[in-house]
Amino acid sequence: AQTVTQSQPEMSVQEAETVTLSCTYDTSESDYYLFWYKQPPSRQMILVIRQEAYKQQNATENRFSVNFQKAAKSFSLKISDSQLGDAAMYFCAYRSAQGAQKLVFGQGTRLTINP
Amino acid sequence: NAGVMQNPRHLVRRRGQEARLRCSPVKGHSHVYWYRQLPEEGLKFMVYLQKENIIDESGMPKERFSAEFPKEGPSILRIQQVVRGDSAAYFCASSPPNFASTGELFFGEGSRLTVL
User: Fold this and answer.
1) Residues of chain A found within 8 Å of residue B91, distances taken between Cβ atoms
2) Are A77 and A23 in contact (CB under 8 A)?
3) Alpha carbon of B72: minimum distance to chain A alpha carbons (Å)
4) Which of A53, A96, A114, B82 is such that its CA lies 20 to 30 A from the CA of B22?
5) pLDDT computed for residue B99 by the predictor
6) Hey, what long-range contacts does B58-63 have (CB within 8 A, 24 or more apart)?
7) Backbone φ and ψ of B59, nearest 5°
8) Neighboring chain B residues of A45 at a CB cutoff of 8 Å
9) Do B43 and A105 lie within an 8 Å CB cutoff?
10) What average pLDDT values come out for chain B (116 residues) when binned by 10 residues?
């Protein structure tokens, strides 16, 4: 079974600075998707960024980018120019491209933005 | 709003009562997933359904919990004889038939169950 590990329960960063959230995963599959979801206090799960495993190029969405290291099974999220609205729980997630396509989540990292 | 709709948003039950949580997926989506989130924890997979079929229920407790996604109407997560440990946020997500093209799941805002 696939597992996702986020080793940082909490992180904090100064407003306008850059922060990196770590995520590792374990799988024997070669074709899959990786995601970062954001959960603000409203509890809504918001997709931040998505990466297809077959793509070597790291995904980027405005101030959010990932460092995808397939061999190392690592998928970190970098947030540049941090804003107060970025404060939330961030969850890394894995989804197989075959079979039962459930999302497997990590434990989450609580990100605090210091003004 | 064409997103995933969950109701009720908040539900309070006493021990031993039944809880029913409803989920209407995004229009055109035929795959529904239920997740449970305990306080300060991640989302744990419970069950994956397609219309009239349970595809994967590996995360469902063996007793008291059931789920359905009928041909017509919303998906229902039913918890019988609730206990305090069932207190959690329950999230529903949906994906389209061509999920392989994006991989993304679309989440509702969750239903928070409190058992007194």
Assistant:
1) 45
2) yes
3) 23
4) A96
5) 61
6) B59/A102
7) -100, 0
8) 43, 91, 93, 107
9) yes
10) 88 98 92 92 92 92 95 95 96 80 82 96
Residues of chain A with pLDDT under 70: 99-100
Beta strands A32-39; A46-52: pairing state:
antiparallel
AA identity, residue A42: S
Query: Which amino acid would we find at residue B30?
Result: S
Contact B42 A35 (CB under 8 A): no
**Residue whose token pair is 């300060």:** B40
Q: Which amino acid is at B95?
A: S
Q: What pLDDT, on the 0 to 100 scale, is given for residue A48?
A: 96
- Which residue shows structure tokens 């600075």? A17
* Structure tokens that stand for B115 in this block: 């058992």
Place of tokens 């790291």: A58
* Chain A residue numbers touching B104 (CB-CB < 8 A): 33, 35, 47, 50
